[in-house]
Amino acid sequence: MELHLHIEGTLEPELAFALAARHGIALPYPTVEALRAAYSFGDLQSFLDLYYKTCDVLRDRSDFYTLAMAYFARAHADNIVHAELFFDPQTHTSRGVPMGDVIGGLRDAMADAERRYGITSELILCFLRHLPEEDALATLEAAMPFRSEIVGVGLDSGERGNPPAKFVHVFARAKSLGFRLVAHAGEEGPAAYIREALDLLQVERIDHGVRCEEDPALVERLIRERTPLTVCPLSNVKLRVVPRLADHNLARLLARGVNITIHSDDPAYFGGYLGDNFRACAAELGLGAHQLTALCENAIRASFLPATEKATHLSRLRRAVAQWTMRSLLP
Ligand code: ADE
Ligand code: ZN
């Protein structure tokens, strides 16, 4: 299950150059290698600056289709069965790309991915928190013709200085329209932003949330309420939220009973897709079969799938784990 993935963050340098050539656009780097070499970030903002720049190559419906199909091929290779994709419409509509082309291209790919790979997926529209709430409200209204194609709304972009409290009205409106609610909080921002996202925005999942440990009472609450934290370990290392993967608090939080799930965030930029995140955590944090299975179960339960589909995925997972255990016991 992939529950924390920005589809724009799956834009590999090779595809960025191919799309730039298609549209006759110059990228700020001369070669694929030079662009990839620029993927070394001091913090969230330095990543976002490059990320928004490379999004400029996404110009029409077919670009969004190509981007998402490239992602689904990788997701299939990682045995992903369900993905809930974040997309940032403001990054595209501000450049003159119609909302319908963004959503249309993504939905075309989602339909093909289900036919070709059996992967189900949903779209989560994220508001850019560095922009005013009025822009988010206008974006939500502009998305209403596509209401049935979007499962939920989220909040992303530069966290520092842009608290969840800034978006109370747009989240209340989205809730009244029946959208599921999530928000990035506690990635670079303080634990207080996690509380705001829960109390003021009424979100069901927290994206990242790794700074929750700075508020012990909040950790107790997250455990009690089983709030999912969609944690992105390789992202946290690349953006220097943690110094090294071995220092990551996710294993400790999981052991304490926090509802941790693992995801890939912006895999083209952060050096790994979902399988890479799992393998790196197993190696660096010493996670064994029991913890890895728990992380997968948490993600199935935290997804926005209907209860019947969650039950099907849980039993498939248990069968796969039992087979794997049997095989590892055989000589
Ligand atoms: N947009 C894309 N990736 C993001 C991240 N890790 N945090 C906040 N906004 C983002
Ligand atoms: Zn994210």
Structure at a glance:
β6, α10 (216-225) and β7 (228-231) form a beta-alpha-beta unit. It contains 16 helices and 8 strands. The protein has a single domain, classed as Metal-dependent hydrolases (TIM Barrel), CATH 3.20.20.
Describe this structure in words.
The protein has 331 residues and is an alpha/beta fold. The protein has a single domain (2-326), classed as TIM Barrel (Alpha-Beta Barrel). The protein is 53% helix and 13% strand. It has 16 helices and 8 strands. The protein has helices spanning 13-23, 32-37, 44-54, 61-77, 89-93, 99-117, 133-143, 168-176, 191-199, 216-225, 233-238, 250-256, 267-270, 274-285, 289-302, 307-329, and strands spanning 2-6, 82-87, 120-128, 152-156, 180-185, 205-208, 228-231, 259-262. The protein has an 8-stranded parallel β-sheet with strand order 1-2-3-4-5-6-7-8. α4 packs parallel to α6 (99-117) and α15 (289-302) runs antiparallel to α16 (307-329). The mean pLDDT is 97. The structure holds adenine and zinc ion. Adenine binds next to loops.
Set down the secondary structure blueprint.
Blueprint: E1 2-6, H1 13-23, H2 32-37, H3 44-54, H4 61-77, E2 82-87, H5 89-93, H6 99-117, E3 120-128, H7 133-143, E4 152-156, H8 168-176, E5 180-185, H9 191-199, E6 205-208, H10 216-225, E7 228-231, H11 233-238, H12 250-256, E8 259-262, H13 267-270, H14 274-285, H15 289-302, H16 307-329
Parallel strand pairs: 1-2, 2-3, 3-4, 4-5, 5-6, 6-7, 7-8
Helix pairs in contact: 4-6, 7-8, 15-16
The chain binds adenine and zinc ion.
